[in-house]
Amino acid sequence: MTAPQRLTDRKREAIIQAAISEFRSHGFEITSMDKIAATAGVSKRTVYNHFPSKEELFAEILNQLWARIIAEPSVSYNREQPLREQLRQMLREKMQMMADENFLTLARVAIAATIHSPERAQNMIERMGEREEGLTVWIRAAQADGRLQAVDPEFAAHQVQGLLKTFAFWPQVSMGRAVLDIEMQHSVAESALDMFLARYQR
């Protein structure tokens, strides 16, 4: 990568981080591209060179959030391994992600901005539906192998992740609670794991 490219990438990242900070502090509607430029330490023209509109900039923040949510898990379905071991690793990875302050900040920005705009929320949901999340893929594979009961894989994935988010996402996003320590992360993951397998394992 050449020096000018690196500089361009650094400026782009500075703009995104400034936008996240401003959206979080002041909300989407009130935040201006002028303020984002000032916070990023770049010219307004530079901001518009990277992002033609505030909506485009917000869409990039959503892209980053969604990319983290659907990141490929380190575990692919393996018929030779116990389901518990495979699912434990995936749930612990989810817990680790939800304990990341950068992830929680992105989530707060996204949720706050979409609450006030049903249309924006709809766009976000449609984008999220374009690619299937890793846990859903794993559940479908385990079902095809006859090791999990027949249930909508997406429903089951949302169900087990909902058990995690009750403790490790919503209190932190909506009430500013501290992220869970490792011991508590593992405890919540194990409990969700027990409930999921008790319900769906054949």
UniProtKB/TrEMBL annotation:
Keywords: DNA-binding, Transcription, Transcription regulation. Residues 32-51 bind DNA. PROSITE patterns: HTH_TETR_1, HTH_TETR_2. GO terms for molecular function: DNA-binding transcription factor activity; transcription cis-regulatory region binding. It comes from the Bacteria. Pfam families: TetR_C_7 (PF14246), TetR_N (PF00440). InterPro entries: DNA-bd_HTH_TetR-type_CS, Homeodomain-like_sf, HTH-type_TetR-like_transc_reg, HTH_TetR, Tet_transcr_reg_TetR-rel_C_sf, TetR_C_Proteobacteria. Residues 9-69 form the HTH tetR-type domain. PANTHER family: HTH-TYPE TRANSCRIPTIONAL REGULATOR RUTR, TRANSCRIPTIONAL REGULATOR TETR FAMILY. This is TetR/AcrR family transcriptional regulator. The lineage of its organism: Bacteria, Pseudomonadati, Pseudomonadota, Gammaproteobacteria, Pseudomonadales.
